[in-house]
Amino acid sequence: MKAIITLLSVLCLIACAEAGTSPAKPKDAVLVFSKTKGFRHKSIPVGKLALMKLGQENGFAVDTTEDASAFTPDNLKNYKAVVFLSTTGDVLDDTQQAAFEQYIKKGGGFVGIHAAADTEYEWPWYNQLCGAYFLSHPKQQNVEIQVLDKKHISTKMLPDRWKRFDELYNYKSIVMGIKVLMTLDESTYEGGKNGANHPFAWYREFDGGRTFYTGGGHTDESYSEPLFMQHVLGGILYSMGKKKASI
Prior knowledge:
Layout: H1 2-18, E1 29-33, H2 44-58, E2 61-65, H3 73-76, E3 81-85, H4 94-105, E4 109-113, H5 124-130, E5 133-136, E6 141-147, E7 161-166, E8 170-172, E9 179-184, E10 198-206, E11 209-214, H6 226-240
Parallel strand pairs: 1-2, 1-3, 3-4, 4-11
Antiparallel strand pairs: 5-8, 6-7, 6-9, 9-10, 10-11
């Protein structure tokens, strides 16, 4: 009986989030957007659940959608931050793009996870928002990640050299002015193409709002990895304006 109740609770949580509501909605809320027009990551469903769990445990509501019509001024104003969870391709039309730009200009937050960098190649403002575009990736493998800034809320819990397994992106159109938190040590894996300063996660204030991006999150296992989820939580809290960049 207990297992059935737990399952029903999870299903209710998912249904409420997809409908844009929550059973007991906290004051603060985040919108998780995972529309894909290109490659679709199979980790998206577990990523949604993990982000909903983060919200439950940390006092903010999490709504999820793959419907781009959610990008209106009236709807976006309900959220402290918008998370692009492995979105791909051209996911917003011109009107929706304009609404999202105004949302950021009014102090909204953006979090990009993994394939958020593989999104909206024809929208230069989005390149500035996300911080870089996807170039390529080698096979999934182990890597050592150099943590450069341990004062940021998204990295304070990490070791100086973080060893993990994931799909490791190479980037192009890397924006000047991003504050790089971590770099991939290309000597510890095969297929890196960005050299000695290969960014993995970064943040900055941009166009009135706050942005954070992490290259991790390809695998299902990422979303049950405590350090990775603490890292993501820190990025969300920063983008929401709940925590200062440095502690």
